[in-house]
Amino acid sequence: MNHIDKQYYLEPNRRLSQLITGLILVVLFGWSLSAIQFDQLTANGLTIAKNILLGLVQPDVELLFNFTNGVPYLLIETIAIAFLGTIVGAVLAIPLAFLSASNIVPKPVAIIIRLLLVFIRTIPAIVYGLMFIRVTGPGPFAGVLTMSLTSIGMLAKLYVDVIEDLDTSILESMESLGCSVMEKIRFGILPQLSALFLSIIIYRFDMNLRDAAVLGLVGAGGIGAPLIFAMNSYRWSEVGSILIGLVVLILIVEYVSNKIRTKLVRG
């Protein structure tokens, strides 16, 4: 059977699989639509949505530019929580990443550490936040601990992918030259990993900044707590000021982080 005959016989099977996949997607989409209940939309809800939009175009200017206890101060606190949590998580993730790299340690050890990392990643950040608030009380410290723990799981996983792509021929050449372990790490491993590790850390900081804002909603510090207080009190101009500051901050950080990561990856 030549290539054309094989393609002729395989074409119906490909079309059938595409048809079945399409039908499954349509059924899942229809089932998802059933969760949307427009009858729960009330006039009060639409009024609140309108007030939120009005708050964005008519923000509380005094709160927006108050550097003592206004939006800038809250944004700085949010950045501090995300930054410190990222740094702690990045440092703690390094040994776990090496212990879960199958080209560095025996496979049984790597599997056990990877299962631990999977368990850490399974629990959402907001659940960790609620747990740490019970331990340390509400405030930025709970947010830092949460950011650190959630960062460990993701960063270690991304570190492993980089470590397993190491060019081992360099290490073998250095070993043949009689280099010590520290020399191999300093001149053989770090030059290959440092730029990629730093790029991964910056990417995680970008994510942590968003998570830190959300964690504030449950009392783990940052700008989220004043936001939920303002919404509960129907102070829509304050809500608008906080949202404007948060959007501007995230746009700036994302732009800068993308520039830095691109430069690091391209060298």
TrEMBL record:
SUPFAM superfamilies xrefs: MetI-like
One Gene Ontology MF term: ABC-type phosphonate transporter activity
Record Pfam families: BPD_transp_1 (PF00528)
InterPro entries listed in its UniProt record: MetI-like (IPR000515), MetI-like_sf (IPR035906), PhnE/PtxC (IPR005769)
Primary site of residence: other
Keyword flag Transport: yes
Keywords, alphabetical: Membrane, Transmembrane, Transmembrane helix, Transport
Protein name per its UniProtKB record: Phosphonate transport system permease protein
Species this chain originates from: Oceanobacillus polygoni
Lineage per the UniProt record: Bacteria, Bacillati, Bacillota, Bacilli, Bacillales
